[in-house]
Amino acid sequence: MKPQLSIFLLFLLLIFGGRTSLYAQEYAVKTNALADATATLNLGVEVGVAPKWTVDLSGSYNAWSKNESVKWKHLLIQPEARYWFCDRFSRHFVGAHLLGGAFNVGRVRNNLSILGTDFSVLNDMRYQGYAFGGGVAYGFAFMLSKGINLELEAGFGYAYLDYDIFKCSGCQRKVGDGSHHYVGPTKAAVNLVFVF
After folding, report:
1. The dihedral of CA 16, 18, 20, 25: what is its sign?
2. Residue 167's closest CA among 125, 130, 136?
3. How far apart are CA 178 and CA 196, in angstroms?
4. Residue 101: which pLDDT band, with cuts at 50, 70 and 90?
5. SS3 of 89, please?
6. For the chain, which terminus, N or C, has the lower number of CB atoms within 10 Å?
């Protein structure tokens, strides 16, 4: 079993293992429409742990290539502790999240630069490696109907990236390696949430 899957299953066991009954607004399952728009498989599970506290675990996986030259593959896990200012799963919240994952990205045409990170290096090279970090977030949940919410969230933080560099997206000819300290957006979500 892959280490990422083992960690995910252990986390779910810790959250759900001690629960013996369900209560109103105790659990939520969600999908991020922003990830859905890029054909990225994603799922989030959130559990109430105190009157104004929840724990969220979201993950996403993209194994597809746009074409032979463009790569945008990744696996990302983001656990988050949330404090709700009103009731759980309702209105304003703040959160602190961790992130960990693997990526294989290259030949993505752009001229983007954020706080010292130049993403235009992805124009000509492929980067394959791992990322770990964390951040803080703010969000707001709108109640659409009983049991269905729309949740908006944005997060900012830090990630450490360790990677190998390849000349082209399809080849295995390594031309270097490196690491990078990223500071910037670490979370963006427009979640459709099903609350139980």
Report:
1. negative
2. 125
3. 45
4. very high
5. coil
6. N
Residue 166: exposed, middle, or buried by beta-carbon count in 10 A (0-12, 13-18, 19+)?
buried
| Phi and psi, residue 120, nearest 5° | -70, -10
Nearest to 146 by CA among 191, 102, 90, 190: 90
E strands, 63-173, are 71-84, 91-106, 113-114, 117-118, 126-145, 148-166
Q: Are 103 and 129 in contact (CB under 8 A)?
A: yes
Question: What percent of the chain has pLDDT above 90?
Answer: 59
Q: Which residues, listed in sequence order, are joined to residue 55 by a DSSP beta bridge?
A: 47, 81
Q: How far is CA 159 from each of CA 70, 118, 131, rounded to the nearest angstrom?
A: 23, 14, 6
Q: How many residues does the chain have?
A: 196
